Structures are given as structure tokens and as C-alpha cells.
Amino acid sequence: MSKKSKNGANHRARQRKRFDHTIHPHTRPGTVIVPEGALAPLLHVTAYGPDQIVEKRNATIAQIRELRNKYPVMWIDAVGLGDAALIEEMGELLGLHRLSLEDMATVPQRSKVEDYPHHLFAVTQIPTYNGDLCLEQVSMFAGKGFVLSWREHAGNCFDIVRKRLQVTNGTTRSSGVDYLLYALVDAVIDSYFPVLEQLGEVFDELDDRVEADSEPACIAQMRDLRHDVRQLRRIVWPLRDAIDDLVRSPPEQITQETLIHFRDCHDHAVQIMDTLENYRDAGSDLRDYYATSISNRMNETIKVLTIISTIFMPLSFIAGVYGMNFDAHESGWDMPELRWKYGYPFAMGLMAVVALGQLWFFRRRGWIGKGKQRGKSVDEG
Amino acid sequence: MSKKSKNGANHRARQRKRFDHTIHPHTRPGTVIVPEGALAPLLHVTAYGPDQIVEKRNATIAQIRELRNKYPVMWIDAVGLGDAALIEEMGELLGLHRLSLEDMATVPQRSKVEDYPHHLFAVTQIPTYNGDLCLEQVSMFAGKGFVLSWREHAGNCFDIVRKRLQVTNGTTRSSGVDYLLYALVDAVIDSYFPVLEQLGEVFDELDDRVEADSEPACIAQMRDLRHDVRQLRRIVWPLRDAIDDLVRSPPEQITQETLIHFRDCHDHAVQIMDTLENYRDAGSDLRDYYATSISNRMNETIKVLTIISTIFMPLSFIAGVYGMNFDAHESGWDMPELRWKYGYPFAMGLMAVVALGQLWFFRRRGWIGKGKQRGKSVDEG
Amino acid sequence: MSKKSKNGANHRARQRKRFDHTIHPHTRPGTVIVPEGALAPLLHVTAYGPDQIVEKRNATIAQIRELRNKYPVMWIDAVGLGDAALIEEMGELLGLHRLSLEDMATVPQRSKVEDYPHHLFAVTQIPTYNGDLCLEQVSMFAGKGFVLSWREHAGNCFDIVRKRLQVTNGTTRSSGVDYLLYALVDAVIDSYFPVLEQLGEVFDELDDRVEADSEPACIAQMRDLRHDVRQLRRIVWPLRDAIDDLVRSPPEQITQETLIHFRDCHDHAVQIMDTLENYRDAGSDLRDYYATSISNRMNETIKVLTIISTIFMPLSFIAGVYGMNFDAHESGWDMPELRWKYGYPFAMGLMAVVALGQLWFFRRRGWIGKGKQRGKSVDEG
Amino acid sequence: MSKKSKNGANHRARQRKRFDHTIHPHTRPGTVIVPEGALAPLLHVTAYGPDQIVEKRNATIAQIRELRNKYPVMWIDAVGLGDAALIEEMGELLGLHRLSLEDMATVPQRSKVEDYPHHLFAVTQIPTYNGDLCLEQVSMFAGKGFVLSWREHAGNCFDIVRKRLQVTNGTTRSSGVDYLLYALVDAVIDSYFPVLEQLGEVFDELDDRVEADSEPACIAQMRDLRHDVRQLRRIVWPLRDAIDDLVRSPPEQITQETLIHFRDCHDHAVQIMDTLENYRDAGSDLRDYYATSISNRMNETIKVLTIISTIFMPLSFIAGVYGMNFDAHESGWDMPELRWKYGYPFAMGLMAVVALGQLWFFRRRGWIGKGKQRGKSVDEG
Amino acid sequence: MSKKSKNGANHRARQRKRFDHTIHPHTRPGTVIVPEGALAPLLHVTAYGPDQIVEKRNATIAQIRELRNKYPVMWIDAVGLGDAALIEEMGELLGLHRLSLEDMATVPQRSKVEDYPHHLFAVTQIPTYNGDLCLEQVSMFAGKGFVLSWREHAGNCFDIVRKRLQVTNGTTRSSGVDYLLYALVDAVIDSYFPVLEQLGEVFDELDDRVEADSEPACIAQMRDLRHDVRQLRRIVWPLRDAIDDLVRSPPEQITQETLIHFRDCHDHAVQIMDTLENYRDAGSDLRDYYATSISNRMNETIKVLTIISTIFMPLSFIAGVYGMNFDAHESGWDMPELRWKYGYPFAMGLMAVVALGQLWFFRRRGWIGKGKQRGKSVDEG
Ligand SMILES: [Mg+2]
Ligand SMILES: [Mg+2]
Ligand SMILES: [Mg+2]
Ligand SMILES: [Mg+2]
Ligand SMILES: [Mg+2]
Ligand SMILES: [Mg+2]
Ligand SMILES: [Mg+2]
Ligand SMILES: [Mg+2]
Ligand SMILES: [Mg+2]
Ligand SMILES: [Mg+2]
Ligand SMILES: [Mg+2]
Ligand SMILES: [Mg+2]
Ligand SMILES: [Mg+2]
Ligand SMILES: [Mg+2]
Ligand SMILES: [Mg+2]
Ligand SMILES: [Mg+2]
Ligand SMILES: [Mg+2]
Ligand SMILES: [Mg+2]
Ligand SMILES: [Mg+2]
Ligand SMILES: [Mg+2]
Ligand SMILES: [Mg+2]
Ligand SMILES: [Mg+2]
Ligand SMILES: [Mg+2]
Ligand SMILES: [Mg+2]
Ligand SMILES: [Mg+2]
Ligand SMILES: [Mg+2]
Ligand SMILES: [Mg+2]
Ligand SMILES: [Mg+2]
Ligand SMILES: [Mg+2]
Ligand SMILES: [Mg+2]
Ligand SMILES: [Mg+2]
């Protein structure tokens, strides 16, 4: 618990509730209302061309206005949704459509890529997993000479892009806005693989636990896991479709070479979907496996009950018969065994014979004694 | 019960029956037959342009005829389907197709947008939820210079649009009929989110109840919930498709900018579908969870039975043996224990050994005593 | 049983068998073989234009040949498939394709609309429901100046069309062959709604019965109902598709206005499908509900068994112990209780303590006594 | 067993194995390798035009070469795949593509219609059912002036076509290669209906058996039946698609009139699919029904156990109490009933009261005695 | 265990983990990072035309550069991914796109065929099965005058192609790069059939085991098998789609004749999918069968328990009654049977009557004695 940051806890609360949308039904279309408790925005601007690059941390709108159109590409990497006025100002400066700004500020959005008159708008979620699945919304706008990315919290997702931008005359530096957009989308998609790996480990662990012992705890964890897989599918499915649409009918500002890279992105999204399908099937299998395990164990329990009853009921009956108060002294017909010298050993022997007969019967039926043999055949098979 | 208005009760009766269509099979196509018990219509007319606006509550057909084509846009907001003659008169005045009027008066209709020669026709349902899901039909007609909306009951769904109309030179006031139609459709779609939120809360609550204790009451509520989710899906699915068709091949009277707004509507409809899919999966999960809980508990019950039988049957058998009437005084072979000084303590000790042996066996099998340990591991896990 | 007509019984026999097709594998394509026991055909001819109308009941082929092309529209409404020669003669007179005649005479056909060189051919089923689902085949041919409809039995399905034809200068009278075809298709589709309503009532009733008491009778009825719903789906699904095809790529003889009416037909077919989907889900839900009810009841039964065993086994054991024949007179160690003055009350008290302890334990576990409380919470919830 | 011919047994062996393909992985594409144990081919040639017809049984390749192009249509009906050289010779004579020859000789193929540069190639399976589903591959080639059909075994499937060919100036005789191909495909499709009828009867019979008594034997038969239905679906599904493709984009050698006949074929294939869907659902229903029956019966068994335990455990306890050895002669507190005059009748009466109380309780719970009443309501319902 | 080669063990480890992708998230697109433990590459070059052929085992990049464009076709068959530098060098030499090289080195890839500006790129998996499913990635590049295939390990998959290349003027030798690519793809697809055959055998074996005896071991094996089938489906499904795309819109370098061969490939892929669908259904059936078997057996166990309890509880009760200490000597009402001469035989007879009555009841209910009869009917049926 304590290892989760405040943000993580915030995330978790969001994910735990079935309905996690923010509703502002009585607003006009395009109204920017920031999420409760959102962080104050920090703007990190990088403007570059093949052989020059400028970086400004904690930039202001004024500084951005100044830098605009001075360099082939300006990347504004914003973190924190907590200032509606700033968002609107930025939108005005870059000519962003009000509806796209509203979507950016409304958490969570379904993954999509939308072509507005003056810019592309892409939105999806960045996942992290530390026992619970946490999701952070990321919006990307690409227009003439600028890319604006806006995340909810600071994270290391875009560090790789920033690092590559330092390489003078590298592919990213020499390419335009479209390639930077690709690089960001690629970085977001790549952030799913570690989460898939962690989920895979939880599956493997759960597999082992169900195999070893079907404790009731498993069922809740299985359900959580299945829920997480479904939630990821619900994000990646439309993301894959959106990139597929982009690749099939690309906006004109995307070059042929960048398209090949977007195709690679699509391929990664398809791989993620494949893995999630795999996990979904694994989840169903686990549930079936668990249910059959319960049935199997109930069967075993009932067998124990049946064996014990079947052995002791006849024995108790025999004991009961010899406990009847017919007086062997009164009539020759009344339980002559009671007067026999070896009556007691005879009765005990009779019981032993009955008990052993039953055991033999159960053994032949395979209800007892063969258990270990079977266990072996499993190991060998 | 008493907190539901008369209308609510009416709604509920509709929803409770599996077959909730009104059938008038022996009528010619386009016959307007109003639902039983429908309210008398009230017409609220708002005619406006960018800088002028006129409102008439409880307007008459004559007043509407007079206002027609005097302002760029006339919005007739009708409430109550209870007057077939009025509906037909209105249809004649505005040139509405008979089949669309019939659909408007026939409750419930499947969501759809239809392009008639002289007007667009859209129909869908407005949901409310207060334990039961209630649905109210809303029809919208958009032709040259007018939008006609017709609901079953007065509600606050369109208040937001009316309020925005008051803003002189606001987007709605400056735009045409197409934007007003969008604003109404948007308002209808926005009315689903609070219902989804309430359903989500019921799910969360049900989740907790199933986890805490699997009372039989849950099963009926689960079923109701699943039914409500399915009913909402059945409304939103065709609505989403209809808006998608509208966006893909828009009628000419819809401008480019309004289309972008309709795309936003579509996006909301898709989000609602996503949430409903989520709820559907949650419903299946809950059902599986409940079924497994019953199995688990049955298993526990059978374990108790088996433990008690396995412990007491042998004990009773031993007691039965020493209750046999073999007379230790008659033959040295006859239950010599009865004559031992410590015979009774020996018998009791034998029973104690058997009982403790069984307990040890069950503990080793994990059937008893480890319960609490497990509970902990769940909390910690 | 006795309330079913002979035809109904005939229908039922058809529906009861899994395979209900007639096979004539060794015939050449286009051979008309009438169903066994089919009624002798009766022809009812109505020829009309906007201001004139002629009707002939029990018309002969000769009379039809005479009337042909004398009026804008001639409607031949045939009932009874029992005369192959007549069918072939009619086909020759009107220029109908042999394969369409074969389909008409082969019961049952899958719903379809086929465009033959000289005529349209539509075939589907008219349902009735009186405990069992009965289906009657109806074929419709529309060519130049004529519409031929052919049903298996007389019914009131087309009465509404006939009645509307009496209105001089009414829409039907003033329109052509295409509108009459629409009117007939519409009448057929409208005949599904009462059946849906009846099925809905059976569902509602079954719902109540499963809720009240899960008698084994339910399961067979559920299965029948699910089967009926599936059978209806199998008829309406292709019918909806066929009308959709007709509306999307209409044959030239269908006017724009009639197309709008066919779109309304399509809409009704979609509503029927929606309701059938609803019923299908309701059927699955009922089955799940029933299965869970059985589990719940088994659980209750096992609880009773466990409670009774858990209470009486220890009591019987105690009684058994004091029934052992250790003689308290022989050794001070031998069951001193037997010699106590209050030994018997002590033993009975011990038993009472054990029994009450168990009851307290079961009550705390919620196995007994809280039942009514729960029942209440269901009513209140 | 003995009533199956050698061929039937051969078929069965094929069907019984899950993997029934022949693999020749190390051959070059187009290598003809005949199945093991295939019959030696017999060629039956029929060459005809509208007014002449020649037939040659057991024809040789030389005879076929001679007959070629002498008549409008030459139909070579081959039976038996056992001679690779002959197949290759035939392929060379008629200009058949190597890959189509390979497919013909490789059993089983998925149903398909392929358009090779110089001929059409169609392949599918002919089913027969006599308890097991047997499948025989049939390949058809249609090129300029010839149709070649090749089956695995002699059967009566094409007799109907041969008979129709005898009719001088009949449709088949007057039409070309395309109509003969249609007639053969139609004959193959018609061969599915008797099999569906037989499967339907097995379903009906199984229905009755499950209803009457849920013997374990049913489950294996159900599984076989479901497997057969799936196998048929897997054949007819692609066949239907292939004919649909043929009808939608027909090769030029197929005339308009023949196309209408192929549409009829497609219609039949769709009907077969519909029936198979029906059977698939019936199979699922049967399985569910059987599972619920087991649950129901287990419930009944447990009820018997619970009733018997609940009645006799308290009785045995009472008997046990009066069997305790507290001596009524020693202390007034020690089981005074033993000394009562009517002590024994009192004890027996107590037991009777307890037993009757339990019976009354169980009757009120509906566990006993109401069974027959229910049975009646089923019959009446 | 010991019969698996080191490579096999390596494979297995890969397959056992749910998440088997390699992640290199912090690399720029197109970076070649070879898998851990990959073998050092061996290049086997075959350059040929219709009448000349040169082979070089363990070729170097220099030798390949020399051979390039000297012969119509050069096939470089590489094995082992263990040298990133070599891969990059090869890519540069042949003009391969960086992203395709990255995909080749990243194991596993989803099956796909991609059209890069200067070459085709295909990647898929070669399966082997020896109890576990092992997968080996194979990448194929086809550009102007060359085909490059790159596998993870040496295998005999391409031996058949190499052998056919030896035939002077054979189809492969006389055809171009496109036909060689086809031959390789065909060889890969053919490698699935033996695996399907082996899986089919495991299914058949598992079928028999479940039928004979439902040991818990089966369930784990079933799950593994289902997992393997799903994994194969996930490979073959996109492979089939990729080849279908290739056939539908072929790149210009593929000739008409080669296309027909690729269509054959597609056909094989479809057959593999069909078989996998079959296996998937078989897997579901097996699981259902197993679950029903458990239910059936639990039912049998409970029957044994019920029979034994129902027989012995009344008997023990009777014995208990006659074990009560009412003294027949004290009161005439106190168990007079104890004083009867034939009291004991009477009691024993009473017990026998009760026991036989129960047995008769159980026999009539079909719980005992009819078992064998049923078993027979299964064998006969
Ligand atoms: Mg809004
Ligand atoms: Mg939006
Ligand atoms: Mg990537
Ligand atoms: Mg989710
Ligand atoms: Mg989705
Ligand atoms: Mg899929
Ligand atoms: Mg899996
Ligand atoms: Mg109507
Ligand atoms: Mg309508
Ligand atoms: Mg909205
Ligand atoms: Mg519903
Ligand atoms: Mg639907
Ligand atoms: Mg969920
Ligand atoms: Mg026929
Ligand atoms: Mg037909
Ligand atoms: Mg209608
Ligand atoms: Mg059906
Ligand atoms: Mg429902
Ligand atoms: Mg091959
Ligand atoms: Mg082939
Ligand atoms: Mg046919
Ligand atoms: Mg199969
Ligand atoms: Mg298939
Ligand atoms: Mg379908
Ligand atoms: Mg059915
Ligand atoms: Mg990367
Ligand atoms: Mg890649
Ligand atoms: Mg092949
Ligand atoms: Mg898998
Ligand atoms: Mg995969
Ligand atoms: Mg199968």
C-alpha cells in the first residue's frame, strides 16, 4: 500500500469504480472542464530542425508564441491537466478545435485518431501495472509545424523520444512533424509491453496456485485479472483500428516513409491484441479449471463420507444387533451367539470381514489406494 | 414505491412486460394511433435568428402557422402524445411523412435516423433510472426552417439547449436547423451518462454483496440488472449506427462544422456502448462468481458433514461394541475389557485417540483450522 | 387438444419433427410436387383501378385469362396447394419461372425475395401460436399487371388489404402492382406481432413459475420456448435481409413512394428481430436462473442433512457411551455417572448443552433462523 | 457391423480419426498420389447433343480421345481413384491443371469451386449416414465440350442425371456443359437431404430417450451427433460460399438461365446450413437438458438421503437414550420412564410423533408426496 | 526429458511462459537486437538459372556480394539469428528495410506478408510437436534477383525445395524469384500437417482415456492441448489472411502461374484452420464430457451413500429399539417381543423384510442392478 504514490492511489480509485467517466451534462459542446485534483500543467518545449535544437522547460504561452514557426518542428510536451484557462489559451494559439480540447480534458477517452480541419488529434491511455492496472490519458495534436502532447502525470514514456532528438541529423531530427507524431505514438504503444509481461507473470503465478491448491482467494484475483485484460482490450482495440484507418487513408501531411513506420505501430498494436486474446482465453481456462477442481474435490469429500458411512454403518448395525436385549437365557432362539464361548471373537471377526470386504470393494472401484499411482502417471505423462 | 410519480409507475409497467410494443395490425400504413393514457400535448415554440428570439408556451397550431418562415429557425418542442388530430394537423402543416408520424406515436421505436423527401426524422429513447429503468420516446423532425421535437412526458433533458439559445449571437443562435438538431441529439445522448453511473453503482454494490455473502436475493437483482443493460444496448446500438450513417453520408443540409459535432455525438454513443459492454461482462462475471460461491459453500457444508460423520461414526461404533450384550462373566473371550479395572478409561481413551487422529488427518488435509490463515493471505495478496 | 383445428394439428405434426422438409431428390429441377394432404386450391380474384373494382370468388383459370390486362392491377389470392396441374397452368398463364413454382409448392421455404426475368417472387411463413408455434407458407409473385399470392390455408391475414381495396381512390387503389405487393408483405409481417406478444406472455408466466418454485416441468417448456424463438429467428432473419436487399437495390417497377413503405416494412422486421433477440437472451437467463435455483436448493437440502447429522450424531454417541456395558458396580473407574443420583439428568443436560451449542453455531453461520430476515430484505430491496 | 460394406468400413475408419488428411509433404506441387486402398477407376462416357447420344461403359482413354469434340457435350463419369497414371493421362488429354488433379486425388478436400485458365474445378463430399457419417469425395471439371466427374466409389447419386439425359430434346440434352455441371452439383447437394432427415430422426429419438431416462449412454451418442453435425457444417459452409461466388461473378461460359438454376442450388445449400444450425442448437439444448437432468436427479437422491437421515437419526437417538444403562432402580432421577407401566408405548409413541412430524414437515416443504401432482401438471400443461 | 535436444528445451521454455515476446522498448525503430542465446548464423547460398546452379555452404557476405545479379535467382538460406552485425550488413547489401530486419530478429512475430518499397517481407513460425508445441520463426525476403530466408535453427523444412532445385529445367529452376518464394512458403505450410496429425493423435488418446476413466490428470492435459490449438490458430489465422491478400492484390513481380500456386497455399492454410477449428470444438466437447462424467460419478457416489444409509438406518433403529432397557419383566407393555420364544428371529425377520423392501425399491428406481444391462446397451447402440 505504502509503495504507491499519491498519483497511483488516485489512479486506483478511478479504476475501482465501474463507471469512471466524468459527466458534465449541462455544458455547451467544447467546454473545457478539468478533472478534479488534476496537477498544474508544466510545459516543456523542444523546437528543432536537422541541425539546430532549442529546449525550454517550464515554458510559458508567451515563449511558445515567440518560438512558433521559427523552427521546422516545435514539440510542446505538457504534463498536468489542472488549468482550463491555459488549455484554452494553448488551443487558441495553435488553432485547435474546441471539441478536441474538451476531449483532452475529459478523462478517460476511448482511443481514437481524429482529423480536424487544421490538425490531427489522437488520444489514448498509457498503462502501468503494480498489482492494479493504472491508466493515464495522453492526447496528441499535430498541426502545421507543431506537435502538442498532453499527459496527466509526468512519466518516463517520452524520454526515449527526447533522447533520440538529441542526435544531430538523426532520423527524428531530419524528419517533420509526422515522424515526431509517429515516435510519440510508438512510445505509447511500447509502454503496453511491460504491462503485458507483468500480467503474464500474474497469470503464470495464478496457474501454479490453482494447480497446487484451489483456495477461494484465487477466484477474486482471477476476476480482477480478467477485468484488467478486458479493460486493456477496450483501449487497444480502437487504438489498433484508428492506426489502421490512418495507414489505409493517410492525411496528406504524412510521408510514405512515416507511413511504413505507422504500419509497424499497427503491427505492434495487433501483437498486443493477440496477447490480450491469449490472456482472455487463459482467463476462461483458469475459471473452468478452478470450477472443475471444486467439483473434483467435492467428489473426493463425498467419497470419504460414503466410504466411512458404508464401512461403519453395517458395523454399528452388527454391534446394535448384539446389543439387543433379547435374553439368550430365556429362549434358545434368542441370540445364541451371546452364549457361545467364542461369540465375541465371532462377532468381531464378522465385523472385520464386513469392513475388509468393503475396503476391497472400494479399492476395486478405485476409490481408495490408487491415488498415488495416478499422481505418478501425471508426473510421467 | 410512493416516491415514484404516476408517470414513473406507468413507465415501469411498460418495462416489466417482455413484449412492450403496441400493436395495431388492422390499420392502413401511416395511421396515427396514440398510446393509451398518453398526456395531452403542450407545444412550446421558440423561433430565433442570431439577434432575435421569440418564445410561445402552450402555442396553438394557428400560432405556429403564423410564425413559420418568419425566423431562420423555429423549434417546436412538444410534450405529450395524447392527441392524434393535433399530430396529424402538425404533420400537414410542416409537410411530414405519414409513416414518420405513425412511428412517432407508436411507442417504443427502435432508434433510427430516416431521410424522408422533405425532412429528416430521428427517434430514440431517453432513459431514467430509479431502481427500474424507465424509457421515454423522443422523436425529432428537421425540415426547412423548423425542428420539431416530441417527447412523451415533460423532462429537463432539453433545458440545457433552451438555456444556450438565450445567448445572443451564441453558436446555437447563429447556426441553422442542423445545429439545433445536433444540440437536441447531443442532449439526449448526454442523458444516458447519469443512468450509466447509477447502474455502475448498483454493480459496485452488488459486487460487494456477492463478495460478503451470497444470499439468494442477489440472483434476481443480477438478472434485472443484466436485463437493463441489454435493453440499453438494444437502444444505443442502432442509435450509434444511425449517427455513424449520418456522419458518413450526410444529408446536404448539414454543414461541415455541424458534422464535426455529430462526430462528437457518435463518439459519445460509442463510449456508452463501451460502458455497456463492460457492464455486460461484469454481469457475466458476477453470475459466474455467484455460481462458484454456491459450489464453494456446498463444498464447505459437505466437509462439515463428512468431518462430523467421520469422527462420530467410529466413536459410536466403539460405544456400540461395548454395548453388546456378550457377557464377560460367561466366557473369558467375551469382552474382557468390561472386567478390566481401567476398562472404561481405556475405552474412552481409545475414542479420544480415534477422534484426535481424525482431527489431525483433517487438519493435514487442510479441511479444518487453516481457514483463518487463508483469509489473511487474501487480504495481504 | 380438442381446441386445435385439423389444420392446426397438421401444422403441429410438421413442427414437432426436427427435419420438416419435403424431399423429392429424384425429380428434375422445376417439378411441382404438392405436399401430402394439401387443400384443394380456391382462387379469389380482385381486379381494380383507381375507380373500378371487380371481385370473383372461386375463379377459374379461364376467368383469370379473360380478366388479364383489363384492369391496372389483378390480384389473385389463392389458398390451398393441393393441385399441381392448376399451379402449372397458372404458372404458364402468368409466365412464372418453373423454379419459383417448385419453391412455392415445397413446404417450408426459407424466406427470400427473388428477381426472375419476368416477375418478382417472394416467399415466407405466416406464424400463429396457440401453445405450439404453427407456420403457414405464403408465396407472392408480382409481374406486369398482376400479383399472385398463394397460401396453404385460408386465414384472415390479408383481410385488411382486401378491406382497404374497397376505398375508391384510396392509396392502394390508385397505386400499382408494387404497392399491392408491399401491402401484402406488410400484412404478413404484421402477423408476427401478435405471436411475439403471446410468446412474451409465456415468458412472463414462466418467469413467475421459476421464481415461485422450480418444478421440473419448467425445463421442458423452457426448451420448447427457446426452440420456437429460434425457429422464428430463422424465418425473420432472411426475411429482413431480403427486404433490405429490395430497398437497397430496388427493381425498377417499384416507385420511390412504395420504397419508403418497404423501408417501413424493413423497420418492422428489424423490430421483430430485436424482440426475438430479447427473448433469446431471456431464454438463456431463465435457464441459468433455473440451474442456479437447483444448486441453491441442493445446498439447502444438504444443509438440512448436515444440521441433523451434526446435532444427532454427538447425541447418539453420548447415549451410546452410557449404553456401554461397563459395570459401574465392578470398578470405580467404570462410568461413575451411572451411579450418581443426578447421573441421568446430567447426561440429558450434557446432550442439551451439545445440541444447543450446535444450534448456536449454525445460527451464527447463518444456516438457520435468518431465513425470514433475508426474505424480507428481498421484498424491500 | 456386418451390414456395412467393405467400403463403408473403410469410410468409417477415416471418419473416426480426428486427423483424416493424407499428407505427402515431400512432393512437388501437382503430384498425383492416390489414396491407399482406392478402387481401380472405371470410366463411363456419355457424349450427347440435343438429338443424339452415345454411351460407353468401361471406356478407355483412347476411346475418349476419339470421342472428343465430336458431340456438343461429353460427360466422363469416373469412379475410383486407384490409378495415378490414368488420372495424369486424363488430365493431359483434357488440359487439366496439375494442382486440380492433385486436389482430386487428395482426400478429403474442403468444398470449393476454382476457376483455372482452361477449366472450372469443383470439389466437395457426398454424405451417407448409417449410424456413422460417411463421406465420399467428388471432383468435377468443366472445360470446353466436356465435363469430368470423379468419385471415390460407385453410388446412385448421379443416376438421376443420367436418366434425364435419355430424354431427347429435354432441357439437359439441349443445354451445354454449364447445365450438365449444374445438374451434377444439384444432385450432390440433393444427396444431403436424406442424411439430414436421418440425423433429424436420431435427434428426435435421443430427445425422447433423454426425456424418459438420462442414461449415461446418451452422452456419448450426443457427442457423436454433435460431431457429425459440425463435420457436415464444415463441408456445406464453404460449398455454399463457393456457389454464391459462382452466382455473383459467374465465369462467361455459364448462361443466364443456368445461373438461375445455380441460384436454386445455392438456396438448397442455404437450407441445409439452416437445418444444420438448427441441429447444432438442438445439440446444445440436449446437452444442457441432460446436465440439468443429472442435477435434478442428484437433488432427488440427496433428498431421499436427507429424509431418511432426518427421520431415523432422532428415532435412533431416542432408542439410544432408553438404551442407556442408568439404573432406574437406583435413583428416582434415572429414567423413570423405564419403570412406568406404559413407558414402552410412551417411547414408541414419542418416536411415532417425531417421525410423523418430520413427514409432515417434508410434505409441507414439497419434498415428498406432491410428486404425482406435479407429474400431472406436466402432462396437462 | 532427455530425448529433447538443447534447442527443444530452449523452445519449450519460450512456450511455457504466457508472455513470450522480447521487449526492447528503449530502442529507436529499426534496431536489430538478436534474441539471447541465438545461434551464430550459417549462410547457405544457391544461385541458379534454368541450366546452371552454384551452391556455397557457409558463405560470407563478400561471396554473396560477388554472386549477386550473376544468376537469375540467388537464394540465401540463413540459419541462426545470433549476429546483429551480419544481419545489418546483409540488409544493407540487399537493400532491406530496417523495420523488416528488426522484425526478423524479434521473436516471435505474428504471421504477415509486407510489401516494402524494394522487397516483399514474409514472416511466420514453423511448428514442431513432441509433447510440447515448439515454434521456430522463419523470415523470407524476396527482392530483385534474390530470396533470403532466415530461420532460428537448422531443420529439414526446406530440404524438399533444395532437392527440387537440383532438377535441371524443372519448374523451380526455370521460374523466377516469385516461384522460389512460393516453394518456401509452401514448405512452411506443409510443415503444419504432421503437427496437426500428432495433435489429432493426442486428442484420440485423450478421448479414449476420458471415456475409460476420468482421472484428474486429464484435465491438465486437455488444457495444454487447448492452449496449443489456440496458439496454432493464432499463427495460421493471420498467415491465411496474408496469403489471401497476396492472391487478391498480388505485387506485380508475381506471375499468373505462381499466383495459382499461391492460391493452392491459401487452400492448405484454410484446411489447417478447418482442422484447428475441429480441434477447438473437440477440446470444448472433451471438457464438457469430462465435467458431465464427474457429475455422473458424483451422482453414483451419492447413490451408494443413500442406499447404504437408507438400508442400515432403519435396521440400526430396530436394533436400537430392542436394545432399550424397558424391562419386559416389569410391565406387560414393555417390549413383549423380548419374552417371545421367537422374538429374536422375529426381529431379524423384520430387519430382513425392511432391507429387502428397500432393495426392491432401489431396484425399481433403477439405482441398483440394472447397471450392467445399461452398459450392454451402450456397446450395442
Ligand atoms: Mg456535453
Ligand atoms: Mg468529445
Ligand atoms: Mg513500437
Ligand atoms: Mg473493463
Ligand atoms: Mg469494443
Ligand atoms: Mg478475432
Ligand atoms: Mg492460453
Ligand atoms: Mg400496420
Ligand atoms: Mg413504422
Ligand atoms: Mg455530448
Ligand atoms: Mg432487454
Ligand atoms: Mg442487435
Ligand atoms: Mg468488467
Ligand atoms: Mg431436385
Ligand atoms: Mg428451389
Ligand atoms: Mg407493418
Ligand atoms: Mg428451429
Ligand atoms: Mg431479457
Ligand atoms: Mg506439397
Ligand atoms: Mg491443393
Ligand atoms: Mg436441388
Ligand atoms: Mg468434425
Ligand atoms: Mg469453417
Ligand atoms: Mg449466420
Ligand atoms: Mg432447435
Ligand atoms: Mg521500439
Ligand atoms: Mg516491427
Ligand atoms: Mg502445400
Ligand atoms: Mg495461446
Ligand atoms: Mg500469438
Ligand atoms: Mg469434433
From TrEMBL, chains A, B, C, D, E:
<dbReference type="GO" id="GO:0050897">
    <property type="term" value="F:cobalt ion binding"/>
</dbReference>
<feature type="transmembrane region" description="Helical">
    <location>
        <begin position="342"/>
        <end position="362"/>
    </location>
</feature>
<feature type="region of interest" description="Disordered">
    <location>
        <begin position="1"/>
        <end position="31"/>
    </location>
</feature>
<feature type="compositionally biased region" description="Basic residues">
    <location>
        <begin position="1"/>
        <end position="27"/>
    </location>
</feature>
<comment type="similarity">
    <text>Belongs to the CorA metal ion transporter (MIT) (TC 1.A.35) family.</text>
</comment>
<dbReference type="GO" id="GO:0015095">
    <property type="term" value="F:magnesium ion transmembrane transporter activity"/>
</dbReference>
<protein>
    <recommendedName>
        <fullName>Magnesium transport protein CorA</fullName>
    </recommendedName>
</protein>
<keyword id="KW-1003">Cell membrane</keyword>
<dbReference type="InterPro" id="IPR045863">
    <property type="entry name" value="CorA_TM1_TM2"/>
</dbReference>
<dbReference type="InterPro" id="IPR004488">
    <property type="entry name" value="Mg/Co-transport_prot_CorA"/>
</dbReference>
<dbReference type="GO" id="GO:0000287">
    <property type="term" value="F:magnesium ion binding"/>
</dbReference>
<dbReference type="Pfam" id="PF01544">
    <property type="entry name" value="CorA"/>
</dbReference>
<feature type="transmembrane region" description="Helical">
    <location>
        <begin position="304"/>
        <end position="322"/>
    </location>
</feature>
<keyword id="KW-0460">Magnesium</keyword>
<keyword id="KW-0406">Ion transport</keyword>
<dbReference type="GO" id="GO:0015087">
    <property type="term" value="F:cobalt ion transmembrane transporter activity"/>
</dbReference>
<keyword id="KW-0813">Transport</keyword>
<keyword id="KW-0472">Membrane</keyword>
<comment type="function">
    <text>Mediates influx of magnesium ions.</text>
</comment>
<keyword id="KW-1133">Transmembrane helix</keyword>
<dbReference type="InterPro" id="IPR045861">
    <property type="entry name" value="CorA_cytoplasmic_dom"/>
</dbReference>
<keyword id="KW-0812">Transmembrane</keyword>
<dbReference type="GO" id="GO:0005886">
    <property type="term" value="C:plasma membrane"/>
</dbReference>
<dbReference type="InterPro" id="IPR002523">
    <property type="entry name" value="MgTranspt_CorA/ZnTranspt_ZntB"/>
</dbReference>
